[in-house]
Amino acid sequence: MASPLEQFEIKRFLPILVGNADLSFTNSALWMVISAGAVYAFVVWGTSRRAVVPGRLQSLVEMGYEFIASTVRENAGKDGMKFFPWIFTLFFFILAGNMLGMIPGAFTFTSHIIVTFFMAICVIVAVTVIGFYVHGVGFMKFFVPHGAPAAMLPLMVPIEILSYCIRPVSLSIRLFVNMMAGHTMMKVFAGFVIAMGLFGVFPLAITVAIYGFEFLVAFLQAYIFTVLTCLYLHDALYMH
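^ thats the sequence. predicted structure below, dont judge the formating
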């Protein structure tokens, strides 16, 4: 039986070495390109006709647009709509990566901590830059708890800063763990289907159930990542 972790192995398709840096094009990079291309094609083809009475694909694009727009308004405020294209792209890129990773033989790049951590770092750096751009040095007040006694500030401010710096870790681990755990479970139970012969119907049923549940998890994790990004953006814009 093959190892259930074999599916997460990075494979080089086009070796590229620049000094000591390995910039090879891998299966992970390939599925990132495929996911980005799928999202681009989905949006462009869905809005190409711009019919008054939308077809199925146009309806899906419009539903996706309204879904993310309402998510941004509810969690980042009206000013957050300025950053709607960024949030829209982030959600559908993660969603495409999660969903395409459900195809047998595909590679789920969101199951790698380095990928999710990089996306999380980009989010935190972006909202921090936005915070300083909007409030200037006054953004540092965000790390001062409202109503806290002055005597406690030397202790509480470092804690607030540390909590802020931990955000990319929690944001990335949540997505990575859920995607990796689900795919590992499916691989484990799928391996029992053949190994158990006639009794393989039981692990097969479990595999099918997990497979269906993973589609829900794939959507929820993309949504949670997006909602948290909106909340962090709200903090940068309004500091509360």
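The mean pLDDT is 90.
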